[in-house]
UniProtKB/TrEMBL annotation:
Gene: GALR3
Membrane topology: Multi-pass membrane protein
Tree of life domain: Eukaryota
Subcellular location: Membrane
Sample GO molecular function, one term: G protein-coupled receptor activity
Source species of the chain: Gopherus evgoodei
A Pfam family annotated for this UniProt entry: 7tm_1
Key words, A-Z: Disulfide bond, G-protein coupled receptor, Membrane, Receptor, Transducer, Transmembrane, Transmembrane helix
GO cellular component, one term: plasma membrane
Protein name, per record: G-protein coupled receptors family 1 profile domain-containing protein
Residue ranges occupied by any G-protein coupled receptors family 1 profile domain in the UniProt entry: 53-135, 145-204
Regions crossing the membrane: 34-62, 74-95, 115-137, 149-175, 187-207
PROSITE patterns in the record: G_PROTEIN_RECEP_F1_2 (PS50262)
Length: 242
């Protein structure tokens, strides 16, 4: 990508990074340097929570073939895969926008990341729409058990992405003044939209007893497996010493 360039607006100097998903940034302000530390830390937490959480969702759904006979589980699987793809392929690259002076990964990577951001976002949107339609055709008993969780996921998705799109629209239509307040809003909306990719597993665990039970089972299996491997490794090392 092209290096960032600067321009003057009154007495303030601004810089614009021409990498994906970015807006003009105030140049020498303290907020920019602080963002270079805070935002990558937030993105790292999103990456960590999202990878573990969505990985657990995939493990729960793929274990014992639970997605074969349940369309809702299939839709939830699609959401988890979209979120995991977004976290792994997009979040680390976007974090570099705030720490590096320019985009170092080339134009192809920039376009690929930009493409994956919108691909996963639209995949989540259409999946939520599909699962909402599917809920209508289910029985009232099943609907009461799952609808609350699906509604919560949809509401959180809208709340997380709405501020970011409002900022983008204001910027496109020229109603986005470049100052400290709008810069803070831009950072907050960016972090909030990306945080959505790690929130769905938390919603599942809070609302669904089934997911809480399955999460515990997966954790138990992993801990037991690690413990057995540790015991086996210690036994082998002792036998070699004797």
């Amino acid at each position: 990508m092209e290096p960032k360039y600067s321009f003057l607006s009154g007495d303030a100097q601004w810089t614009q990074r021409t990498c994906c998903f970015s807006l003009p940034l105030p140049g020498p302000l303290l907020e920019v340097r602080a963002a270079g530390i805070i935002v990558p830390v937030v993105f790292f937490l999103i990456f960590l929570l999202g990878t573990v959480g969505n990985g657990l969702v995939l493990a729960v759904l793929l274990r014992n073939g639970q997605v074969k006979y349940n369309t809702t589980n299939l839709f939830i699987l699609n959401l988890a895969m979209a979120d995991l793809c977004f976290i792994i392929c997009c979040v680390p690259f976007q974090a570099t926008i705030y720490t590096l002076d320019g985009w170092l990964f080339g134009p192809f990577a920039c376009k690929a990341v930009h493409f994956l951001i919108y691909l996963t976002m639209y995949a989540s949107s259409f999946t939520l729409a599909a699962v909402s339609v599917d809920r209508i055709s289910e029985s009232r008993k099943a609907k009461c058990k799952v609808t609350k969780m699906i509604v919560a996921v949809a509401i959180i998705f809208c709340l997380c992405w709405l501020p970011h799109h409002l900022v983008i629209l204001c910027f496109w239509f020229g109603y986005f003044p470049f100052n400290r307040a709008t810069y803070a809003c831009r950072l907050a909306s960016h972090c909030l939209s990306y945080a959505n990719s790690c929130l769905n597993p938390i919603i599942y665990a809070l609302i669904s007893k089934h997911f809480r039970k399955k999460f515990k089972q997966v954790f138990t299996c992993l801990l037991f497996q690690n413990k057995m491997e540790s015991i086996s490794g210690n036994s082998e090392s002792r036998s070699m010493l004797t």
